[in-house]
Design brief:
The protein has a 3-stranded mixed β-sheet with strand order 3-5-4, with helices on both faces. The chain has a two-stranded antiparallel ribbon with strand order 1-2. The relative contact order is 0.12. The protein folds into 2 domains: about 170 residues, Up-down Bundle (Butyryl-CoA Dehydrogenase, subunit A, domain 3), CATH 1.20.140.70; about 290 residues, Oligoendopeptidase f, C-terminal domain (Neurolysin, domain 3), CATH 1.10.1370.20. The chain contains 29 helices and 5 strands. It is mostly helical. α2 runs antiparallel to α3. β1 and β2 form a beta hairpin.
């Protein structure tokens, strides 16, 4: 809220006890004795009872109270140098609090089934909220300074000029700022409002069991079954997911309606023109730029997803595909499990071929216990990279099943991690990258890895299967995420008319699926509940378009790299990552001759996907 919190996407919670030893899987056997890594969070704190954690909280509470006493209602009278010193002190306080919340979130993500972890996470959130209430005045008061007054201070102080990008981004929210009392009320109520509903969602998912055939598995394992080669197993997994979420659909509907209404109320008070506007402001991107992206992708559905899935149905020998066929392996796809050490080397070698420095930074994550890839109950599903705080280092979470897509997920999350390390040199307040650019390094890392593997493959059938797999990943990143964004937009618009029923939510979900995936699919009614497992809708409303933004941006960026027309591309690329949040997308893309405000920019990125599909059509026989 107004720059006090940085949006780390979907980070979650904490472990009070050591993680249990994960059960060995077929992947472990394939990898020999190389078990999947589990992270060690002791670089943050040794545990919930670490004396350093209690000391950090106590010191932060005293320092924050003193900060408020000394500076509240006095910022206008400070010199530029004194104001710069105050911002540095403010940053240090948030760095300490960020270390606590990062640790708590990661512990909870590691085992959300552990009730003690949930209590610890909630307790830490409440304590940090109480402490940070003393800091709330600072950004509110800064935003009340007139532009001319603030600019005079910045112009007269080199120390304050350092903070110009942060001040610039802070003042984006100036027109939406409320009175101090209302801001403090919203801030303190957060732990009993949206955060509490987020926690309910996380704990519900973590404790769910999905019946697949005669076996009960986690949600993550059931969703992984949707890409099984055996169609009957895919169907069983799909029906299990539908049944499990269908049984709890009233709960998920309540969570969704409550959070949507909560957002509507705050948006109304803050005078945001539409539900997605806050996210766009946070991403430092104009509503019109996002509209142009969404429009370009929706116009391209027929030449992208509709065309590709028609080919896939033919390859699978199906007149119509069901939703559980969308991620089915292709007939010629290599379904060999990739052992973890091999996956690591594939990714690092791909990074090294582009930039040795990029690979060297990436290798730190494997030399140190900074990655949790093991499979176990209670662990957060999916994958994420959490930057924690610049004085520490990022942590990566993934659930590694050994499939080719898991290798790409590793390349993706490692890209985030490398980006976060490079940007971390900017410090806590200036290192945070808007979501629209936060996906750049991750998607670029995927592309580097894919190209390296594709170029090394000589068998035509395998090359086609690999190319088709990449197209599917790109469709999932671009088409699917824009469909998600469209679903959120329709849902939030409808919520403003009143509470939305489970049935109506299902109708909206099916509407966007039919529109985006096309006539190759025949959707069964049970697919109508699949909206309920998407965590982005709960944790970070309107986040999802950032994936499409990043993918299209990287397609254009990678095309520039392959053309070889930009001198020292690698150096410029690393400088872009190092910039963190100090520059907007216009400045960052300018050295590469790209402009996201140009409508043709998005088509340039989408043309890359279409070109891959063209290539597949030529080999389709």
């Amino acid at each position: 809220m107004l720059g006090q919190y940085r949006d780390w996407t979907i980070c979650t919670i904490v472990t009070l006890h050591p993680f249990p030893t994960p059960a060995r899987s077929p992947l472990d056997a394939a990898a020999g004795e190389a078990a999947l890594p589990v992270w060690d969070l002791s670089d943050l704190y040794a545990g919930a009872d670490d004396p350093r954690l209690a000391a950090d909280l106590d010191r932060a509470e005293a320092d924050a109270a003193g900060f408020e006493t000394r500076l509240a209602s006095r910022l206008a009278g400070l010199s530029g140098d004194a104001l710069a010193q105050a911002i540095a002190e403010y940053e240090g306080l948030w760095e300490r609090l960020g270390r606590v919340t990062s640790f708590a979130g990661l512990v909870f993500a590691g085992d959300a089934q552990n009730a003690a972890n949930g209590r610890f996470y909630q307790t830490m959130q409440e304590r940090v909220t109480t402490i940070s209430s003393h800091l709330l005045f600072f950004t509110l008061e800064l935003n009340r300074l007139e532009d001319a007054v603030l600019e005079k201070k910045v112009g007269g102080s080199a120390a304050l000029a350092h903070w110009r990008p942060w001040l610039r981004d802070l003042r984006v929210f100036r027109p939406h700022q409320l009175s101090d009392d209302l801001e403090k009320l919203l801030h303190e109520k957060e732990v009993a409002g949206a955060s509490a509903w987020n926690r309910l969602f996380d704990e519900t998912i973590a404790n769910m069991k999905v019946k697949v055939g005669e076996e009960e598995v986690t949600v993550s394992a059931a969703l992984n079954g949707l890409s099984d080669r055996d169609r009957s197993k895919r169907e069983a997994s799909a029906k299990g997911v539908s049944a499990a979420f269908g049984e709890r659909v009233r709960l998920f509907t309540l969570i969704t309606n409550t959070l949507s209404k909560d957002k509507e109320i705050e948006d109304k008070w803050r005078h945001y023109p539409r539900p997605g506007s806050y996210r766009n402001r946070s991403n430092m991107v104009e509503d019109e730029v996002v509209d142009a992206l969404v429009s370009a992708v929706r116009q391209s559905f027929p030449r992208l997803s509709h065309r590709y899935y028609a080919m896939k149905a033919k390859w699978l020998g199906l007149e119509k595909m069901q939703h559980w066929d969308r991620n089915a392996p292709l007939p010629d796809e290599d379904d060999r499990l990739v052992p973890w050490p091999e996956a690591v080397e594939r990714v690092l070698n791909s990074y090294a071929a582009f930039s040795p420095e990029l690979s060297q930074i990436g290798r730190r994550f494997f030399d140190k216990p900074w990655i949790d890839a093991a499979l176990r109950p209670g662990k957060s599903s999916g994958a994420f990279a959490h930057p924690t705080v610049p004085s520490a280092h990022p942590y990566l979470l993934l659930n590694y099943h050994g499939k080719a897509r898991d290798v790409m997920t590793l390349a993706h999350e490692l890209g985030h991690g490398v980006h976060q390390i490079l940007a971390g040199a900017q410090g806590y307040l200036l290192s945070s990258t808007p979501l629209t650019l936060a996906e750049t390094a991750s998607v670029f890392g995927e592309m580097l890895t894919f190209r390296a593997v594709l170029d090394a493959e000589t068998d035509p059938k395998r090359r086609r299967a690999m190319l088709a797999g990449k197209v599917e990943d790109m469709l999932n990143t671009v088409v699917r995420q824009i469909a998600f964004y469209r679903f959120e937009t329709l849902l939030h618009d409808e919520r403003r008319k009143g509470e939305v029923s489970s049935e109506r939510i299902a109708e909206l979900w099916m509407q966007v699926q039919v529109e985006s995936l096309g006539p190759a699919f025949e959707f069964t009614p049970d697919y109508g509940v699949y909206w309920a497992y998407i965590p982005h809708f709960i944790h970070s409303p309107f986040y999802v378009y950032a994936y499409a933004f990043g993918d299209c941006l990287v397609n254009a960026l990678y095309g520039i790299y392959r053309e070889g027309n930009v001198k020292d591309f690698q150096g410029k690329y690393l400088d872009m990552l190092r910039a963190g949040g100090t520059k907007r997308h216009q400045e960052l893309l300018a050295p590469f001759g790209l402009n996201a405000a140009d409508p043709a920019f998005w088509m340039k990125g989408l043309d890359v996907i279409s070109g891959f599909i063209d290539e597949l059509e030529k080999t389709d026989g």
